[in-house]
Amino acid sequence: MITTLHIKNIGIIEDLSIDLNKGLNVLTGETGAGKTLIIDSLNIIAGGRFSKDMIRKGEKNSFVELCLYEPNHEQAIEGNIIVSREINVNGKNMCKINGRMVTVNELKVFMSEFIEIHGQQDNQKLLNKQSHLDYVDGFSNERLLSLKRSYSSIYCEYRAIEKELKENYGDDKEKERKLDLLKYQLTEIKEADLKEEEEKELEEKRNKIMNAEKIYQNLKEAYKLIEDNNIDSLSSSIRALEKIEKLDEKYQKAASSLKNMYYEIQEISRDISSYCDEIYFDEEERNYIEERLDLIFTLKRKYGNNIKEILEYGEEIEEEIEHIENLEEYNNQLKENLKQKESQMNEIATAMHNLRVKSGKILSDKVNCILQELEMKNAKISIKVQMIDEFKDNGKDDIEFFIKTNLGEDEKSLIKIASGGEMSRIMLAIKSVLAETDNIDVMVFDEIDTGISGKAANSVADLLSNMGEHQVLCISHLPNIAAAADHNYFISKKAEDGRTKTNVKYLSEKEVIKEIARISSGEVNEISIKYASELRNKMAS
Questions:
Q1: d(Cα 255, Cα 332) in Å, to the nearest integer?
Q2: Sheet holding 380-392, edge to edge
Q3: I need a labelling partner for 530 at 20 to 30 A (CA). Which of 63, 180, 298, 451 fits?
Q4: Residues contacting 310, CB < 8 A, separation 6+
Q5: Given this model, what pLDDT does residue 73 score?
Q6: pTM of the model
Q7: Is the dihedral of CA 33, 36, 38, 41 positive or negative?
Q8: CA distance from start to end of the chain
Q9: Running along the chain, 541 residues long, what does each successive block of 10 average in pLDDT?
Q10: Which H or E element spans position 481?
Q11: Neighbouring C-alpha atoms within 13 Å toward the C-beta of 237
Q12: Distance set, CA 137 to CA 45, 121, 322, 357, 363 (Å)
């Protein structure tokens, strides 16, 4: 159980410590004093979500700490477990169990062993069919839990095989679709008959064809200028120097150099002439080059950034096609294994279904008995457990709560018809039945009395005060629940130094009577005090 709860810098709570006790602990007080913030703090220390807006204005962090008295727990030190959680404005969390750092998820898992919080919003769980299954399973015996563990283990293997088959194209339709696509891609690449340097060569050819006239004119002009001037001039110069080359060695060298230039220019002239002969414009060839380049561009857009990558991709898909076509034998083994898992799961799921049907009947009967006590005398809950064809992670059952609230009416889905007050009483009835079988030490109820009054309020109070060995924390506005409490706390707020802060006070018996009087009539006077005393005595008897 929780022995001490310490809260710092959450909302209007500046620094608050509450010593809690066994039995029914009821928190009452004025609206807006911070009662719900105390429940929020319990939710935070239990690993729940936290908004930075909850940090007290002007502070850098919030801190929640509690002491659990769990003498038989392996982590208890002298019977106590200290749990804390600090949250900074930058979002950083620091969670500790007995001083050891843990993650928020580890904190959540650990605290789920000890505390269960039911807030006003939790009535919405009754509108979720998954919760209906959880309630039935939570009420069931160890045999169902054992079956669920076995089923879950096989189900994980089953899903792993399904995943592998999918990745191995074990599904025949998927495999054929993939093969068709790969074969189409391979055919497209092979029929293109690409060469690695082809694109560069085609670009060069296209450039020549597109500039053929310009190239030809300039080559022709260069050739003409060489022929018309340089060749003849060099020839005449060479003949002149030959006449005097024997007179001086330097004349001979000059003549030799000119001869070399003459031969080079002649060679260049012949080359330019041959270049001119190569120039042509072929419309058909140009169209072929354009089509080929378009094809290469299309393939690059699909399969790679260049021809080399396209060809490599072609090799990869060719290998993949071969791989897929050779998977049939292995996939057949997987499919056979899948059938075995399905057979095993069907057997376990059927056993689970039968247990859930029995548990659902017992749970609904017990809940209906409590609903009678909670002044829903004509209401009747029934739990429908239907086996479906689909394998789910929890079996093959679809479970839903149905209710008939008045005589002569047909039963309808609980999700569709229950009112807010009815939801609160139904949830309390379910929680009280589940409390008989669960191992949760601390039950927390935030305004479970919503929409409840009259005789039903007495029944709710009796139910809360008789929850076995559980420590129950309850925020309430009902005098009946306050009168049934084993321990009463008054939550108030006051302004100090321009700030509002929350205070908590453990009430003496005399103060309890006054608080019951205040809740019941809005004021404390002789008449309300007398009523409060009578109610207190009645609820205690």
A1: 90
A2: 380-392, 395-404, 412-413
A3: 451
A4: 189, 194, 299, 300, 303, 304
A5: 87
A6: 0.64
A7: negative
A8: 25
A9: 93 91 90 87 88 85 92 88 92 90 92 81 68 85 90 95 81 80 92 89 80 73 72 77 81 84 81 76 77 89 90 91 82 91 95 93 90 82 92 92 81 72 76 75 79 76 79 88 91 86 92 91 87 86 71
A10: helix 479-484
A11: 16
A12: 26, 22, 49, 10, 10
pLDDT at 64: 94
Tell me the three state secondary structure of residue 281: coil
Integer Cα distance of 480 and 26 in angstroms: 11
Rounded to whole angstroms, how far apart are CA atoms 395 and 191?
52
Dihedral sign for Cα atoms in the order 215, 218, 220, 223: negative
d(CA 430, CA 363): 8
What pLDDT does residue 224 have?
76
Q: What is the DSSP letter of 5?
A: E
- Sequence-ordered list of residues with C-beta below 8 angstroms from that of 540, at least 6 positions apart, any chain: 483, 484
pLDDT digits (tens, 9 = 90+) for 453-497: 677 788 888 888 887 578 899 888 889 889 989 999 999 988 887
Measured CA to CA in angstroms, residue 404 lies from 36, 167, 374, 413, 414 at distances of 33, 49, 15, 9, 9
- What are the structural domains of the chain? 1-114+440-541 (3.40.50.300), 126-170+340-421 (no CATH), 176-325 (no CATH)
Strand 499-506 and strand 487-496: the pairing is antiparallel
Beta bridge partners, 13, equal: 10
Strand (E) or helix (H) holding 381:
strand 380-392
Q: Give 55's DSSP letter.
A: B
| Contact (CB, 8 A) for 145 and 348 | no
C-alpha dist (Å) from residue 249 to 235, 236, 256, 260:
20, 20, 11, 17
Contacts of the segment 390-393: beta carbons below 8 A, 24+ positions apart: 391/155, 391/158, 391/342, 391/345, 391/349, 393/152, 393/155
Nearest by Cα to 54 from 46, 62, 65: 62
Angle formed at CA 423 by CA 419 and CA 425, multiple of 5 degrees: 120
